[in-house]
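--- STAGE predict ---
source: upstream dedup step, 1 unique chain passed
mode: sequence only
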Amino acid sequence: MIQFKRESCGDLDAAQRREWLETNGIGGFASSTIIGLNTRRYHGLLVAATKPPAGRFVLLSKLEETLVIDGQPFDLSAKRYPGAVHPQGFRYLKSFCLDPFPVFTYEVEGIEIEKTVFMPQGEDTTVVQYRIIKSPAPMWLEVRPLIAFRDPHALTPVTAPVKSFLIRTVAAGTTVPL
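--- STAGE serialize ---
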């Protein structure tokens, strides 16, 4: 098991150099840093091999998560901009562990939430599961997918059209067919 505690996760310079990789066995993968700050063009939660082994597309770049407690938002994600990182959700990251999948544990105002990322073998699918470990106050989690649909060696232009999709509730949670 690989594990990093709050001290390592809170150190931006060190944390952005530590990466994880989850594969699906057919050329696709999910990868990022231990704080969820994508620092490479090929980082993404769903990078599918459309023409294996080399032809790949970043379909889902990342999820931006906001924990809302008593109406107050706490951003759990992190993004790099020229000269700044905003939001700085890594400050709430209690731990990151790889055992066997990437598991992020966030702690905000006494609330603990665990996020697990894994890819079923043989499918271009990424499953992101959230579990409430401790919640002494009412809260909800807003999750916004950042859809890319781009070659891993390219960047999505600012003027790229917004994609729409259908969210469907199923017995084990919610699915978003891309």
